[in-house]
User: Which sequence fits this backbone?
């Protein structure tokens, strides 16, 4: 049985986020989707990491964009793992689930990020198994200019009527907003326009019980086994 849901950064409730062990756990639990974050090293290699700086998750210091891949690979994530490259992550995830790649773009923080990620997906023959998402909607527009086939997902903190015209313009299949902002009206709008709504990030069982009643919603969660319990009960 597959579990319809987005494993947020893998399974961070039990493993270090955005690591291969975290991703492997999500695959073993049969989730349909997995979200990961991508940034560029100083030498232009896409790596899987959430923060712009490495202090919170590793034994090092500095910003991802100021460190080479060699320097990044010398860092220890929570004392037990290494930061994976996007290519390493895709090697693990290929043919196992849909990969939600969040581009950690912010203005011109990472010149060429969109093309580099798309080139990596093409190399691994995973364009159809992945989609790109971002809070930076200019980044999504750039990705769409580069590739008319890749799936796209708008991420926004709250709701806005402006999101739907943008989704139509960019031909976005997904939309992610914080769970608290989702209304029946927004859900109906998504259903009418064939957009999959991803409410984030839902870890409380009471909230899960509400989401599971609406099969059009694609939950994003850190608590994978908690969601599996709710999902199977439903």
Assistant:
């Amino acid at each position: 049985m597959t579990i319809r849901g987005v494993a947020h950064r893998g399974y961070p409730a039990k493993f270090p986020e955005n690591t291969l062990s975290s991703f492997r756990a999500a695959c073993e639990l049969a989730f349909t989707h997995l979200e990961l974050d991508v940034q560029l090293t100083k030498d232009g290699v896409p790596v899987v990491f959430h923060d712009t700086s490495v202090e919170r998750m590793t034994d090092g210091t500095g910003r991802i964009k100021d460190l080479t891949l060699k320097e990044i690979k010398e860092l220890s994530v929570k004392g037990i793992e290494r930061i994976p490259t996007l290519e390493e992550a895709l090697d693990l995830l290929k043919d196992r689930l849909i990969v939600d790649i969040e581009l950690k773009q912010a203005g011109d923080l990472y010149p060429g990020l969109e093309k580099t990620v798309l080139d990596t997906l093409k190399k691994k023959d995973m364009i159809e198994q992945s989609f790109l998402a971002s809070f930076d909607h200019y980044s999504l527009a750039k990705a769409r200019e580069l590739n008319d086939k890749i799936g796209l997902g708008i991420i926004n903190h709250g709701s806005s009527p402006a999101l739907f015209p943008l989704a139509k313009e960019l031909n976005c299949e997904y939309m992610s907003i914080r769970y608290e902002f989702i209304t029946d009206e927004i859900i109906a709008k998504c259903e009418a326009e064939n957009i999959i709504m991803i409410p984030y990030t839902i870890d409380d069982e009471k909230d899960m019980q509400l989401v599971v009643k609406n099969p059009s919603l694609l939950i994003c969660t850190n608590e994978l086994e908690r969601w599996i319990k709710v999902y199977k009960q439903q």
In short: The chain has nine helices and nine strands. The beta strands are 3-8, 31-40, 46-48, 98-103, 130-134, 151-156, 174-178, 196-200, 220-221. The longest strand covers residues 31-40. The two ends are 13 Å apart (CA to CA).
